[in-house]
Description:
By secondary structure, the protein is mostly helical. The protein is 72% helix and 0% strand.
Amino acid sequence: MKRRTLDLLFSGGGMLFAVVLLVLGLVLQNQADFAANYVKDQLGAQQIFMPAADALRGEQDGPNGACLVTYGQGDEASRLMQTGSQAECYANAYIGFHMATSAEEAGWPGATYATLGGITRGIQGQITEATAAGTDVTELQAQLTAANGLRDSMFRGETLRGLLLTTYGFSIFGERAGQAAMLCIAGALVLFVLSIAGFVHAARTPKDEVVFKTSPTTTA
C-alpha cells in the first residue's frame, strides 16, 4: 500500500472521529447548561434562603454542618438557594439536623415518619386497652398527640429533604455531563491537529513510497 494512501485513510478517519466527538461534546455541554440553569431557576423560584452563619444554633456542629457556615455568609440575596450543592447542604445539615433533634427531644431518638407510624399505633393500642380497663389515659393521650405532631413534622421535613436531594442529584448529572463535554471537545481538538498533520505528511510524501512492502516469493 502506498504511504500517501495510508496517511489519507488515517487522517480522514481521525477527522471524521473528531467531528463526532465535537458534536457529542457540544450536545453534552448543552445538557450541562440546561441542568445548571434549570436547577438555578427552580430553586430560586422557591425562595429558600440558607440560614445566616451568625444565626446558627448548633446546626454547624452536626454531620456535614460546616457547609452551613460556608453558604451562610453575606446578605440575604447572596444566601438565596440556587445550586445543587446548597440544596444538599440544607437538606442534610439543616433539615436533617432538626429532624434528628426533634425526635430525640420527643423521646424517640432516630425516629422517622415511617417508624413513628408503628409508635402511634402502639400507643393507640395501649389507649384502647386502658380505656377498656377503666384506667386513666390522659398521659397516653398526650404521648399520642406528641407522636402524631412529630410524625406530621417528619412528613413535611422528609418530603422537602427528598425533593432537595433529588434536585442535587439532577445537578450532579449536569456537572458530569459538563466534564464529559470538556473531555470530548479536548479529544476532538487533539484529533483535528493530528489529522491535519497527517494530511500535511501525505502531501509531502512521494507518490511512489510504499509501506508494508512484501518481498517477492522465490521458488526453488
